[in-house]
Amino acid sequence: MTETPALSVRNLRVEFPTRRGTLAAVDDVSFDIAPGEVLGIVGESGAGKSLTGTAIIGLLEPPGRVAGGEIRLNGQRIDNLSREAMRPIRGKRIGMVFQDPLTSLNPLYRVGEQIIETIRTHLPMTEREARARAIELLIEVGIQGAERRIDSYPHEFSGGMRQRVVLALALCAEPELIIADEPTTALDVSIQAQIIQLLKRLCRERGTAVMLITHDMGVIAETANRVAVMYAGRIAEIGPVREVIQSAHHPYTRGLMGAIPSIEGTGDRLTQIPGSMPRLTAIPKGCAFNPRCPHAFDRCRVERPDLMPVDHSLAACWLVAPVSAEPPR
Amino acid sequence: MSAPPFVEVKNLSRVFDVSKPWLNRVIEREEQKFLHAVTDVSFSIGKRETVALVGESGSGKSTVAKMVVGLLPPTEGSVTIDGVDMWSLADAEKRQALRRRIQMIFQDPYASLNPRWRVGSIIADPIRAFGLATDRAEIEHQVGELLRLVGLDPADAAKYPHEFSGGQRQRICIARALSSKPEFLVADEPTSALDVSVQAQILNLMRELQDRLGLTYLFISHNLAVVRHMAARIGVMYLGRVVEISPTQELFSAPRHPYARMLLDAVPDLAMTGRPRKMVEGEIPNPISPPPGCAFNPRCPAVLDRCRREVPELATTTSAAHAVACHAVAEGRI
Ligand SMILES: Nc1ncnc2c1ncn2[C@@H]1O[C@H](COP(=O)(O)OP(=O)(O)O)[C@@H](O)[C@H]1O
Ligand SMILES: Nc1ncnc2c1ncn2[C@@H]1O[C@H](COP(=O)(O)OP(=O)(O)O)[C@@H](O)[C@H]1O
Ligand code: SF4
Ligand code: SF4
Ligand SMILES: [Mg+2]
Ligand SMILES: [Mg+2]
After folding, report:
1. Is the model's pLDDT at A128 over the cut of 80?
2. What's the total number of domains in chain B?
3. Which of A6, A212, B189, B272 has the fewest CB atoms within 10 Å around its CB?
4. Domain that holds residue A80
5. Is the peptide bond prior to A63 cis by the omega test (within 30 degrees of 0)?
C-alpha cells in the first residue's frame, strides 16, 4: 500500500441544469495528489479546470452542483459535507490562490490583520504569537521590510507582491493542500517566474500537495510533477510531466504542444489544431475531440474512449487501446 | 543612397500629464506629475518585413503603436511611412491618403467588434469609409472574399459577432483591417487573449497573409516566443525605452542587455532542458518616478555608479544591426 493521497478525486461530475437540459461541465474526472506533489491541471479555456477546483473546495455556485463522484482529503470524504462543515476546511486544510490576488484579500483590512485572523481562527496562538508568525511568513514569501509592510493595505502592494501576500495567507494555517487557479496569469513573465519558484519551494519544504490550474504549459513544465490535460470537461491524458510534455500520447496534447511557439524552435509554421473547443451544449458524440483530430476514425465518432494505461500515463484515446480491448468484429 | 525604409520611427516620445486636477493640486500642494510613457524610440521597418516590440506591461508598447498608426499624437519625434510624415501638418492631405494604407489589430476581439452590427457591415465599414467601392453587390463580393481569405465562410457575413468564438472574432478583426487593402498592419498583442491552439491559427494566418499580400507588420507582444516566431527584428522595451534592438536570431542566441537576458531566462523552459537560468529580481519601478540614469539599475547585476547618473544611449555593438543601451556593454564589461 502506498501512502494516503492528500487529495483523491473519483469520478467527479459537475452539472448545470438549464432550460434545454443538463450540461455536464466536469465529467468523470479522477486523480490523486500525493503529499508534497504538484499536480498540474492544464487545458484551454472552458475545459472545466476551474470548476473542478471550485467543486473540491465546495464553492460551486448554484445551480451548478456536484452530481456524482467522491472527493477525499487525506482519506476523509469532503464532498458530502454541509456548507457549515466545509467552511473550516477551507483556509485551514485547503489553502487557495486565485488569479486575482484581490479575490483573497479584503481591501479594507491591513494584510497583517488578515493573516493574523486566519492563523488564529485555525491555530491555537495568541495575537502576539500569530503576529510573529505572520511576519515570518511574509519574510519567507519575500516581502522586504515585512515588520513594516505587515501593516500596509493590499492596494499599497504591486500585483506581484500582492500575490506573495496571498501565498502567505494560503500557507499560514499549514494546509494539507493548496489549490492555485491561474496564480501567475495576470503577472509579467519576470514576476511570474518568481512566484512559481516560490510556490514550488514553499510547498516542497512543507510537504503541501498542490493542485495547480493553468492554461500555460510553460508554467506546468516548470512546476508540476504530474499533469492532467483537460478537454471538454474530461481528462484527456494524465501522467508524469516530462512524458506528457515530450512524448504525449493523446492527439490533443500533441497538438497543444505543437501550437506553442518556443524560444528554441525553428520558426516554422506552428502545428495548428483546426476549430476550437466545443460548447457544453454541443459536445460531440464519441470522443469529444474527434472533429478536430487528425487521426479520428469510425470508432471515435460513436464510442467514447475512457482513460487507458500507456507507458507511465493514462490517455483517453482509441489509438492507445490495447489490441485485445478491441471488440471482436 | 539606398531608399528610405518603408516605416521610419525617429526619436519618438510621449509624455502624459497624470497630475490631479488643478484645484486639488493647489489645495494638497502637489506638483504637476508627468509620466514618460515612451522616450526617444527609433526603429525602421522595411517593406514586407516584420519588426516586433516586446516588453512587460507598462513598457510603452501600445503607446508606440498608437502613435505609429496615427491614433495618438507624439510629444516629440516623428513617424514617416512611405515618405509621408504621419504627424506633420504640412503633409495633412497626403496623410489622409496614408490612413487607408495603415490598419491596426487589437488584443481584445470581443471589445473591438460592435455587437449590434452584422459581420458583413463590420468588414465593409472601411470599404465604405474610404470610398473604395460603392456598388452594393461589389461590396458584398469583397466582403465574401475577405471572409474566405481569413478562413471563414462568406455566409458568415449575415451573422453577429456573438455567434463566433474568440479566434473567429480575431479573424473578423483581421478581415476588417484588410478590407481597405492596407500595406502596413500594426498588431498590438493580437493573440494575447486567445488560447494557444487558436493563437497558432492566427499567427499562421498572419504569416500567410503577409506572404500573399506583401504586408509589412509592426507586431507587439509581451511574449518572447511569439515575437520570435513572427519577427525578423525585435526591439526590447523597458520603461518606455528600447534597450536592445537586434535581428531575431542574434537576440535569442546572444542577448546583450542585462534586462533582455533576464527576460529570456524567465521564459518557462518547455523543452525541459534544464538550461541554467537566473531569476529576475525585483519589480518594475513606478513610471512616474523612474530611477535616475539607467531605469534598470535597481534590478541590474552589472550596475555601477555611472548607471545611476547617466542614461545609456542605444549604440551598435559588434554587429551593425544590433544596438544596445547599456553602459556595461559599451564599456565591454559584459
Ligand atoms: N454558472 C455557469 N453556468 C453554466 N455554465 C458554466 C457556469 N460556469 C462555468 N460554466 C461552463 O463550464 C465550462 C467550464 O468552465 P471552467 O471550469 O471555468 O473552465 P476553465 O477554468 O477550464 O477555463 C465552461 O464551458 C463554462 O462556460
Ligand atoms: N492615456 C494615458 N494616460 C496616462 N498614462 C498612460 C496613458 N496611456 C498609457 N499610460 C501609461 O504609459 C505607460 C506605458 O503604457 P502602454 O503603452 O500601454 O504600455 P504596454 O502596452 O507596454 O503595456 C504605462 O505606465 C501606462 O500606465
Ligand atoms: S479517440 Fe479518436 S478522435 Fe479521439 S483523440 Fe483518439 S484518435 Fe482522435
Ligand atoms: S546601464 Fe548599467 S544598470 Fe543599466 S543595464 Fe547596463 S549595466 Fe545595468
Ligand atoms: Mg479557469
Ligand atoms: Mg499594451
Report:
1. yes
2. 1
3. B272
4. 7-262+270-278
5. yes
Backbone CA torsion sign across A215, A220, A225, A229:
positive
Of A99-113, B244-258, B267-281, which range is least confident? B267-281
Q: How far is CA A168 from CA A34, A174, A198, A199, A265, in A?
A: 22, 10, 10, 10, 37
A197 close contact with B: CB closer than 8 A: yes
Interface predicted TM-score (ipTM): 0.88
Give the closest residue (by CA) to ligand 4 atom 3.
B297
Q: What ligand 4 atom has the least distance to the C-alpha of B258?
A: 5
Tell me if A16 is assigned to some domain: yes
Domain housing B100:
7-231
Looking up residue A25, the CATH number of its domain turns out to be 3.40.50.300
Rg (CA), chain B: 22
Output the CA A320–ligand 5 centroid distance in Å: 29
Q: Atom 18 in ligand 1: which residue has the minimum CA distance?
A: A50
pTM (predicted TM-score): 0.93
In a domain, residue A321? The reply is: no
A243 to chain B, any CB pair closer than 8 A? The answer is no
Q: Among B278, B313, B327, which residue has the most ligand 4 atoms within 8 Å of its CB, making it the best to mutate?
A: B327
Domain presence at residue A43: yes
Q: Note the pLDDT tens digit of each residue in A217-242.
A: 999 999 999 999 999 999 999 999 99
By the CB < 8 Å criterion, does A245 face chain B? yes
Alpha helices in A216-297 (DSSP H): 217-223, 241-246, 251-259
Mean pLDDT, rounded, for A192-198:
89
